[in-house]
Design brief:
about 5% strand; globular; disulfide bond; calcium; Peroxidases_AS
Amino acid sequence: MVIWAGPFDCGAQQLGFQQWRSEAHACPTESNNNQQGTLRPNAYQNSCPDAEPIVFSGVAKAVADDPRMAASLLRLHFHDCFGCDGSVLLDDSPTFVGEKSAAPNLNSLRGFEVIDAIKSDLESLCPETVSCADILAIAARDSVVLSGGPGWDVQTGRRDSLSASKTVANNNIPGPNSDVATLVSKFQNVGLDLNDMVTLSGAHTIGKARCSTFSSRLNGVSNPVLPGQDMGFLQSLQQLCLQSDQGGNSTQNLAELDLVTPATFDNQYYINLISGEGLLTSDQALVTTNSDARDIVESYAADTMLFFDNFVSSMVRLGGLSPLLGNSGEIRRSCRRAN
């Protein structure tokens, strides 16, 4: 497994995409595999050779304007990829209620406009060629790299769904208050294991969460819900959530998922869990209720490169969950609606 050490070694933030990818000592080479109906690296090498540079440019601009957008774009891919077919991007239509209004997504997912802008640029250059599902997968990788994390060759060649399902999204996507058994079950249902679950949870090393997603943890400020909780940390969260935002709704206040290095993709998330400073119930549960999960957390807290290596492997597996290939689905002209 080839690992890119991120922008500090590969220079993604300082260099253009092509120069970044041409750093042979640090970055992987591209595949010339042109067979149809399979996921493969660099699927657009002939049909739209500038596809990945265009995605990278759009993500880099969005993250420069709003550093939180890196986590948001990564999360979009996660929430799409209990299917990996671009269905999360579809607006409601007369024939279906889309996934945007599902409980795990409503008033939570963001970055749709960034994907729209990237898709518009790609449609101008290569009409009906690059799928929205692939844009999400590439943007997720670029978001990690631009935040200082590892890079990888994204497997591409997905096609886009014609519909979406609010019910499926509600049933499949784990919630922020999930216990480890629920998390493991939902990941196993799509073919991922405990190691994948703990590894992909490490994406919470960047980004923010609304008070409403972790308010259940604050019930333990006087009487801890989970053993090992840092009471000072919980009290600081309680103070944050008591403060009214401009709209007078304290549930909309945001807390850093990683209070130490909130904009850097690193292993600090796991260190925080061991210290009792995981933000979400589903985060802190990884070290308090399951010894196997805790062993993985401790190994990542001690070894950044082990986390990076496994994160790349798990992201590739995540991106391969039930993609539409060959003649299935379509290549949308707009990511918000079927053609």
